[in-house]
Amino acid sequence: MKKIALITGATSGIGKACARRFATGGYDLILTARRADLLAQIKTELEAEGTKVLTLVFDVRDAEAAEAAIASLDGAWRHIDVLINNAGLALGLDKEYEGNPDDWNTMIDTNIKGLLTMTRLIVPAMVARNEGHVINVGSVAGDAAYACGNVYCATKAAVKAITDGLRIDVAETAVRVTNLKPGLVQTNFSNVRFHGDDARADSVYKGITPLTGDDIADVAFYAASAPKHVQIAEVLILATHQANGSVIHREG
């Protein structure tokens, strides 16, 4: 029987890249996101290549919708081998005292509470089977705050603490827990952060060759493919000319 990976936020960026990488790696997929049309597109694409794909349309911020979606799984689909908590976002780049509370709430509800919701729904079955793997997509931003990153950095610091805590809580089991911490990755991340301002988003990557979603997906698949006695606990993935969350060398 093929292994099954459940990936949240699977219609763009790192999530979509993980869907493609795990599909080529022999997994069947449960893909979740808010947009049914985009989920349908990636489902069609991957099924044409021989991967079984089940799509679930819900927002991870809606705990009741998430619970109903997971409860709807039946048969082999309930045996989730890998959970990739990818859904997340940054909104705004403002000084903390000038920030938008609506943006704060969206980041906290998605990046922290949504991740917790999915963990609570999926991990008990992994513990009961004594196998499984949780891969959380954190960020270099969780290591230290950078200018105007305040709340976003705090949410990714929370991802690190929550991931470390889960690893402790399942240490007596064979469930593995990984925190991926990407640096600059050129996806729609900055477009979302700047509320659709493409010019401002493009400037984030000016003068540097950034990472791609595929780069992060490769690391996620590597972690999932390690021998059962090997737990890749945490990986910091940076572009070559990025030293940390705030030190970036740009050409020109």
Please describe what this structure looks like:
By secondary structure, the chain is an alpha/beta fold. It is 42% helix and 15% strand. The chain has eight helices and seven strands; from the N terminus they run βαβαβαβαβαβαααβ. It has helices spanning 13-24, 36-47, 63-71, 101-129, 150-169, 189-193, 198-203, 213-225, and strands spanning 4-8, 28-33, 53-57, 82-85, 132-137, 175-182, 234-237. Strands 3-2-1-4-5-6-7 form a seven-stranded parallel beta sheet, sandwiched between helices. α1 crosses α8, α3 runs parallel beside α4 and α4 (101-129) packs parallel to α5 (150-169). The chain is globular. The model has no long low-confidence stretch (mean pLDDT 97).
Strand order of the largest sheet: 3-2-1-4-5-6-7
**N- to C-terminal separation?**
52 Å
Largest sheet: 7 strands, parallel
Question: Which percent range fits the helix content?
Answer: 40-55%
Helix and strand element order: EHEHEHEHEHEHHHE
Strand fraction: 15-25%
Structural class: alpha/beta
Tally the helices.
8
Poorly predicted spans: none
Mean pLDDT: 97
The count of strands amounts to 7
Gross geometry? globular
Please tell me how large the radius of gyration is.
17 Å
